[in-house]
Design a protein that fits this description.
about 15% strand, 15 strands, alpha/beta, Rossmann fold, 2 domains, 14 helices, about 375 residues, globular
């Protein structure tokens, strides 16, 4: 719809209306491994902020998201974050998507040194001035390893892409598998650079097929995860149970891998199922989506952006009519056991805890995701 296109376009432009409260975001809407997730994430933030603005804003001021694209390159995220922080109108950061970049920001202590909050990053960050909303990818990988135990999988393989969270989560999964007693019979990886991803995926699929696994855990996102499933299903071991982490969404699996290949893939989820209207936050999300993005499917990432936006807005409300970066951090630290709508996060001066909920979902015969 026309209105939605305008809202998303505005998110990528430096809003400068007098008195606007600006929130910085770095998430690549161009990189093939993150494009769909990032676009949905920005959508979730944008529709919530727009509804708040229509109701009069925060203390009479509109809230706007300013998005920058890092191409899912760690150094580029650091540079993009520096650009945002250099703008005094950017009062907080939110919804950064690129684990390697987030790790670099954490290592360099950027948030503390610059005195700015990072709200609801998409990754396992929980240190000073970081305010997580979801569990980490390591937690998801462990959940999938435990699922292979409960379903009596005897031969498990791991595959990962060589960017973002891939290498780190793979290493954690290997270590966790040893502790849990999961038999890892094969591992493989592939690059994601143009011209290298496709042959790398083909080689990884063939290598793991040779290990004859009865389950494969895919530590990748976007086109990499989707095309691996497509290729692996064509191998002699293609009937093995396939598992993926939450960044690999069901829509992409069906669209890229094809329904016949996507059917049966199990996906861990760190955000509530977007169709679970028993949760108040999901009902609210449905209502706002129907008003501003009725032609868009419900997704985990647009719901995640929506929920992250709720945390931002609550912190701004608590920060008062003249918010500053310091006041927003102080406000976040008062949000102990804050309920977004049957979904609780808890932030204090000494503890910043997102949800620990991890659900497993499966792609059904029609492409619908079941939980």
């Amino acid at each position: 719809m026309a209105l939605l296109a305008v809202l998303l376009a505005l998110a990528s432009m430096p809003a400068r209306a007098a008195g606007d409260i600006l929130i910085g975001n770095v998430a690549s809407t161009t990189n093939p491994t993150s494009r769909e997730n990032s676009t949905n994430l920005v959508l979730g933030y944008t529709i919530y902020f727009e509804q708040v603005n229509r109701a009069g804003g925060i203390h009479g001021r509109k809230v706007k998201l300013v998005n920058k694209d890092d191409g899912v390159v760690a150094d580029k995220m650091v540079a993009a974050a520096a650009e945002l922080i250099a703008d005094p109108n950017i009062l907080a950061l939110a919804g950064f998507l690129n684990t390697a970049g987030l790790v670099e920001l954490m290592k360099r202590n950027v948030m503390v040194e610059k005195g700015i909050a990072m709200i609801a990053p998409i990754g396992p960050m929980n240190t000073q001035n970081f305010y997580p909303m979801r569990p980490g990818y390591n937690d998801e990988a462990e959940s999938l390893l435990r699922e292979t135990i409960s379903t009596e999988k005897k031969r498990v393989a791991l595959v990962y892409y060589q960017q973002a969270f891939g290498p780190g989560v793979f290493k954690h999964a290997e270590e966790s598998a040893k502790k849990l007693g999961v038999n890892i019979v094969g591992t493989a990886s592939f690059e994601t650079a143009p011209g290298k991803m496709e042959p790398g995926i083909v080689a990884a699929a063939q290598k793991l097929s040779g290990a004859n696994p009865d389950a494969v855990i895919i530590i990748a996102a976007g086109a990499g995860a989707f095309n691996f499933v497509k290729q692996f299903r064509q191998t002699p071991s293609g009937t093995a149970q396939l598992y993926a982490l939450s960044p690999a969404d069901s829509f992409g699996f069906v669209k890229v891998a094809g329904l016949e290949n996507a059917h049966g893939v199990v996906i861990s989820q760190a955000i509530p199922y977007p169709g679970n209207k028993r949760l108040a936050v999901v009902r609210e999300y449905h209502r706002f989506m129907s008003q501003l993005a009725a032609d868009k499917p419900f997704s985990f990432y647009s719901l995640e952006g929506f929920m992250g936006a709720k945390i931002v807005v609550e912190a701004l409300r608590r920060a008062g009519p003249a918010p500053t970066r310091a006041k927003i951090i102080a406000a976040l630290n008062t949000m102990k056991d804050y309920d977004l709508g049957d979904f609780v996060v808890s932030y204090t001066p000494t503890s910043r805890t997102g949800s620990k909920m991890i659900d497993l979902t499966i792609i059904g015969r029609t492409g619908r995701l079941y939980w």
